[in-house]
Amino acid sequence: MAGRRPSISLSKSALSIPRVRNTHFLIECPLAMATTDAMAGPFMSDQPWYHAGLQFACVQCGGCCTGEPGYVWVNRHEIAALAAALRLDPEQFQERYVRRVGSRRCLLELANGDCVFFDRRQGCQVYAVRPEQCRAWPFWTSNLASPAAWNDMCSRCPGGNRGPRISLEEIRARLCRL
């Protein structure tokens, strides 16, 4: 039927939603267990296409921190951690490095689209306390939608399909922290 919204397909294991320990609170994350038809097509098994895990090793090239404009969403806990690392109070940090987009907050970007904390010679200046969105790369739903989406990301990111295999459980945990 035209105009019908995609349904959400749940595996049997999705009926018990995994709980993932966030550093700030306990959350339930059905996203890690559910997939939409639009995202991955019809479910053929109880597992996503990447059930055996995926290889990734960050080489800190900065490709995900530079270029096209985008949003690096931050919450109050991330703002506090970033502020502490820069020896600022959270209010000062927000005045210098954060902008509001609707009801949410994101890090500022430079005029060329680069993250405000990325230095092209030295890399990420806040790597140890980078936001969860940055930590989760490349395990974003857009990159996990299909093998083709993953391979497209790998063609642009030198860490893709290299390094240690990241387990399905770890990928799900990273999705839940977003």
Low-confidence stretches: 1-28, 32-40
Sheet with most strands: strand arrangement = 6-8-7
Task: Report the structural category.
Answer: alpha+beta
Would you list the SSEs in sequence order as H and E?
Answer: EEEEHEEHHEEEEHHHEH
> What integer value in Å does the Rg equal?
18 Å
β-strand number: 11
Which shape, going by the Cα principal axes? globular
Mean pLDDT: 81
Percent of residues in helices comes to 25-40%
Biggest sheet architecture:
3 strands, antiparallel
The total of helices stands at 7
Strand content: 15-25%
From the N-terminal CA to the C-terminal CA, the straight-line distance is 33 Å
Multimeric organization: single chain
Which properties best describe this structure?
single chain; 178 residues; alpha+beta; 3-stranded antiparallel β-sheet; two-stranded antiparallel ribbon; 7 helices; 29% helix; disordered N terminus
